[in-house]
Automatic annotation (TrEMBL):
InterPro entries: Class_I_gatase-like, DJ-1/PfpI, Homeodomain-like_sf, HTH_AraC, INH-QAR. Keywords: Transcription, Transcription regulation. GO terms for molecular function: DNA-binding transcription factor activity; sequence-specific DNA binding. It comes from the Bacteria. It holds the Pfam family DJ-1_PfpI. PROSITE patterns: HTH_ARAC_FAMILY_2. Signal peptide: none annotated. This is GlxA family transcriptional regulator. Gene3D superfamilies: 3.40.50.880, Homeodomain-like (1.10.10.60). The keyword Transcription applies. Residues 234-332 form the HTH araC/xylS-type domain.
Length: 336
């Protein structure tokens, strides 16, 4: 192993802390990144909290300190995160918007100076309004908390505001809906950068579902049928995902899952929405897709490596999930 391979790549995450910050808008997404750092060693998310003040209050009345000054420049390929703000923090009698004005203006001015091509901007909840005031959503598809949609349309008339979306990704702009949708957005980022298996592990740790944005592509086939928290099924699914080509009978998986074959079959249908054998087939097809697009193996070798008895069996199983034959996918990948 080379020295370079031993050191994970670093991704700079710059979290802007506005006054009256919604604490869950920071804690939820950044907890996703913290756990992602623990789940793999190829990538490290380096978190920095910045703002116009070294101290500020939060939505729940808890004070935050240790916030660094807004930097003159952010690293190339950084992700800048803008959380939302609470209208009326816990314990406050009236919102003091006037005193917060200069701090918000400083954030807007900073965003206009530092956001450049190659820098990704992610807003959580009403954080989209700050991005809009900085003119950074013009020409982009975006979303926000349903209570802020009218304001976002007013502040970003040149943006295409999408309603009823968990999150929207358009180029280097990522926006999410209210509060916990920031977790969904960050799981999406982790899936992109560290892989869907890491995102799945983080989601399971947080006991949340892996949900996709309304207009996003379908969930990775490696994540299909895993929108649940049942440990028995996860044990079986983990075993299959680790080696789809193995001889996975219901009886063998039942032993691994510590369940009877009948109970495992029932649990799969109830919680994964498919049978055990259907799940195994989906994983083998997912592996075959990767071999078709990422290797030069012929169809018989692809079938063998992905657990099918023959290329004919592969094509037959493939036809259950795809409208075109596997050879067409290889042709499309070659022409891409």
């Amino acid at each position: 192993m080379t020295a370079q391979a031993r050191h994970p790549a670093e991704v700079a995450i710059i979290v802007v802390v506005p006054p009256r910050v919604l604490l869950l808008d920071i804690a939820g997404p950044i907890e996703v990144l913290r756990k992602a750092n623990l789940e793999q060693d190829r990538l490290r998310f380096i978190i920095t909290y910045v703002g116009p003040s070294a101290e500020t209050g939060s939505s729940i009345g808890l004070g935050l300190s240790g916030i660094k000054a807004l930097p003159e420049r952010v690293p190339d390929d950084a992700l800048v995160v803008i959380p939302g703000s609470a209208d009326q923090p816990l314990g406050a009698t009236l919102p003091d918007r006037d005193s917060d004005g200069p701090q918000e203006a400083a954030i807007i001015d900073w965003l206009q100076r530092v956001i450049r091509p190659g820098i990704r901007l992610a807003s959580i909840c009403s954080g989209a309004l700050i991005a809009a005031r900085a003119g950074l959503l013009d020409g982009y598809d975006c979303t926000t908390h349903h209570a802020c949609t009218t304001d976002l349309i007013r502040l970003a008339p040149a943006a295409r505001v999408r309603e009823n979306r968990l999150y929207v990704e358009d180029g280097d702009r990522l926006t999410s809906a209210g509060i916990t949708a920031g977790i969904d957005l960050m799981l999406h980022v982790v899936a992109q950068m560290a892989g869907p298996a890491v995102a799945l592990a983080v989601a399971r740790y947080l006991v949340v579902y892996l949900r996709r944005g309304g207009a996003d592509p379908q969930l990775s086939p490696w994540l299909e049928g895993r929108n649940h928290i049942h440990p028995v099924i996860h044990r079986a699914q983990d075993a299959v995902a680790a080696n789809p080509a193995a001889d996975w009978s219901v009886e063998r998986l039942a032993q691994i899952a510590a369940a009877s074959p009948r109970n495992l079959s029932r649990l799969f249908n109830d919680h994964a929405g498919m049978s055990v054998t259907d799940y195994v087939s989906r994983m083998r097809i997912a592996l075959a897709r990767e071999l078709l697009t990422g290797s030069r193996l012929d169809m018989e070798a692809v079938a063998e490596h992905s657990g099918f008895a023959s290329a004919r069996q592969l094509r037959r199983a493939w036809g259950r999930f795809h409208g075109s034959p596997p050879s067409m996918m290889r042709g499309e990948a070659a022409g891409a």
